[in-house]
Design a protein that fits this description.
This protein is an alpha/beta fold. The protein folds into 2 domains: 124 residues, Urease, subunit C, domain 1; 297 residues, Alpha-Beta Barrel (TIM Barrel). The chain is 36% helix and 21% strand. It contains 17 helices and 17 strands. The strands form 4 sheets. Strands 1, 2, 3, 4, 5, 14 and 15 form a 7-stranded mixed sheet that branches. α6 packs parallel to α7, α14 packs across α15 and α15 packs across α17. It is globular and about 70 Å long. Bound molecules: zinc ion. Zinc ion binds next to loops. The site of zinc ion has 6 residues, from loops.
Length: 431
């Protein structure tokens, strides 16, 4: 390393470094320059390679920032919509949400203010990238801000009837290429629109996100057995046969989307609670991605995603919080903890990988986020807690991170997004 170059390099070191894409390091370090990671390795090696570079010593652990694979920031002002009672279908909650939105609850300024607050809270907890699904355009929310997580905006379309299909296709045609479109769900969006959104995502190289297999009732509906979703669409005057699956039912929501030709490495299926082993095989064979939302699933009582079967199929799902309308918290540490409680036999290191690399892969951003590796954005988390300080093995470190909820100290560190600042969990900036 030339001395002139070393002057621009910074070394961040810690007793533990979790690259996620490589084995954990004891007494590890990360070399950073120009907002990107140059190298990751043993501290002694990096200090020798970049002699003269300043070193910042972190107390316990360095890891990549968290990635929220699924959120609806525009619903952040809804924190008190009652979940379905035991035995009630998911549609009761959807009806309550739509009634509140339909009543115009929250003016534009309040919605935006609550969304930015929710985003800021996620940033303080260590989230660096959020996939934000919205039905309306909130450009202020999606504008780059070095103090906030990066937002990947996805404009969501629904189309249960012929007039809605025409309106959705028109909106899609007029959409700025910089903005990705998303489809809501197979139970709310006609095949024609699902295919048009996916075709546009393919053309523009954007992620195609769609809710899939969230509830048992959804699978019944797509299976041609009617049920609460048909009743719901009829009650809302959104039934003209466009979404009539009777006589042409599918084995599952994912089987249906696959039959439409929508699966490839750019497709992200959100929830996946009710996917069969065969459907998981289709997801894996096509390189498609999953995002699990355990907090939302628990709150709405729709069941638990079959994580062990997903892992056995070779999939690494992302983790998402969904919205405040279906989750009391947008904290990915809580999502990890809930997932670990639901699946105690799953290795904590895999849960940690889901909340970082899984999300980055699912959103097509693994060259920037999700791991500590050369070329990635130098936006790391320095994490500390009394329990972490006592850990003697990488397994114990991962278990402490996954099972403990949000650690007492989470600092965003490095010079990611060019801000050159350290962001601590109190939301203040230090030099
Ligand atoms: Zn959602």
């Amino acid at each position: 390393m030339q001395p002139s170059l070393a002057q621009h390099v910074e070394i961040f070191s810690a007793p533990w470094v979790l690259p996620i894409s490589a084995p954990a390091l004891t007494e590890g370090a990360v070399a950073v320059a120009g907002g990107r990671i140059l190298a990751v390795g043993p501290r002694a090696e990096l200090l020798a390679s970049y002699r003269g570079a300043p070193e910042e010593r972190c107390q316990a652990l360095l890891m990549p920032g968290l990635v929220n694979g699924h959120c609806h920031l525009e619903l952040s002002h809804f924190g008190d919509i009652p979940a379905p009672a035991p035995g009630e279908p998911l549609t009761t909650w959807i009806s309550r949400l739509l009634a509140r939105r339909g009543a115009g609850e929250g003016d534009g300024r309040e919605i935006l203010a609550r969304a930015i607050k929710a985003l800021r809270e996620q940033g303080r907890a260590g989230t660096v990238l959020v996939a934000d699904i919205g039905n309306t355009l909130h450009e202020e929310l999606w504008r780059p801000d070095p103090g906030l997580p990066e937002v990947l905006p996805l404009l969501e379309l629904l189309a249960p009837t012929r007039p809605a299909v025409a309106a959705a296709l028109e909106r899609l045609a007029g959409l700025d290429d910089a903005l990705a479109a998303a489809a809501h769900a197979p139970y709310s969006t006609a095949a024609e629109v699902l295919c048009a959104v996916k075709a546009r995502c393919r053309r523009l190289g954007q992620v195609f996100s769609v809710h899939c297999a969230e509830s048992r009732e959804e699978v019944d509906f797509i299976g041609g057995r009617g049920g609460p979703f048909e009743d719901f669409l009829r009650q809302r005057g959104a039934w003209d046969g466009t979404l009539d699956f009777s006589g042409r039912g599918h084995l599952g929501s994912a089987a249906y989307l696959h039959a439409l030709g929508l699966f490839d490495g750019g497709t992200l299926l959100v929830h996946g609670v009710h996917l069969s082993t065969e459907e998981l095989g289709l997801v894996a064979a096509t390189g498609s991605h999953l995002c699990l939302c355990p907090g939302s699933n628990q709150a709405l009582g729709v069941g638990r995603a079959p994580l062990p079967e997903m892992l056995a199929a070779g999939l690494l799902p992302a983790l998402g919080t969904d919205s405040r309308a279906s989750n009391p918290s947008l904290d990915l540490w809580r999502e990890m903890r809930l997932l670990a409680i639901d699946h105690p036999r799953v290795e904590p290191s895999l849960v940690l990988a889901m909340a970082t690399l899984g999300g980055a892969l699912a959103l097509g951003r693994d060259m920037d986020y999700g791991s500590l590796a050369p070329g990635r954005v130098a936006m790391m988390l320095a994490v500390d807690s009394p329990e972490l300080a006592r850990c003697q093995s990488a397994e114990a470190v991962c278990a402490a991170l996954v099972n403990g909820g949000q650690p007492p100290l989470v600092c965003r560190i490095g010079s990611g997004r060019g801000d050159g600042q350290v962001h601590n969990s109190a939301g203040e900036y230090a030099a």
